[in-house]
Design goal:
Number of strands: 3
Oligomer: single chain
Radius of gyration: 21 Å
Number of helices: 9
Strand order of the largest sheet: 1-3-2
Largest sheet: 3 strands, antiparallel
Structural class: mainly alpha
Shape: elongated
Helix content: 55-70%
Length: about 220
């Protein structure tokens, strides 16, 4: 299984854990709610669903047919297939949620893992966040060393691009520091937080990143 197909399977299982959906709903959630799959072809979704069904992790159920029984043969409209997670699928997704290895820290996988932090235990969230921070701090060291070696040989535009990449990673490290501190202290004090103060937090009690969304890892340069 490729890394990208594994990420798609993780996202589909996570969304279906929330509620059964038909294919169009899944496409919409992947594209609009998660916002992480612009690079995926929609043609890859249905093969993914078939694979998950073959593994026994979801079932395919007929959706509600058109109200007029004559409409289907005349218009070609049929009830949409509804995909529902099985008990084995839920158990498999929970096993995936508990994984905190290096894959969980990489750019693409971290984004999708973060999208499902609401379903993830606190200790796992902490390990993933700290692993991601460690990975980016290593990246910062490499970028700074490279910039110091090549600064004199770069033209102004290339130098500015390097600085932009460096600042993007520094910004995400600051954001991760805030999240980690919130996980350590914010959860215990959230119940005592005034309603007006909660407006600056998301539903999980974590501080919002500027603009309301986490940094886009695609801005980073390796």
């Amino acid at each position: 299984m490729s890394r990208r197909s594994g990420i798609l399977e993780f996202a589909v299982l996570g969304l279906l854990r929330e509620s059964p959906m038909h294919g169009y709903e899944l496409r919409k959630r992947l594209n609009t709610s998660l916002g992480l799959f612009r690079a995926f072809s929609y043609g890859s979704l249905y093969p993914c669903l078939k694979t998950l069904a073959q593994q026994g992790w979801l079932t395919e159920e007929p959706g509600t047919p058109p109200e007029d029984p004559l409409a289907a043969p005349l218009t070609g409209r049929r009830g949409k297939i509804v995909y529902r997670l099985t008990a084995e699928g839920k158990e498999h997704f929970e096993d995936l949620l508990a994984q905190t290895g290096p894959d969980a820290w990489e750019d693409e996988h971290f984004g999708i893992r973060f999208a499902f932090f609401g379903q993830t235990s606190r200790d796992v969230r902490m390990r993933v966040l700290e692993g991601r921070r460690s990975r980016l701090e290593e990246r910062l060291d490499r970028m700074r060393a490279s910039l110091a070696r090549t600064r004199e040989r770069l033209d102004d535009y290339t130098l500015e691009l390097q600085r932009h990449g460096l600042e993007s990673v520094e910004r995400e490290v600051r954001w991760l520091n805030e999240l980690i501190e919130s996980e350590r202290t914010g959860r215990t004090s959230r119940r005592a937080t005034a309603p007006e103060e909660r407006s600056t937090q998301d539903k999980g009690g974590l501080p919002r990143h500027r603009g309301g969304t986490p940094p886009d890892p695609s801005e980073d340069t390796d």
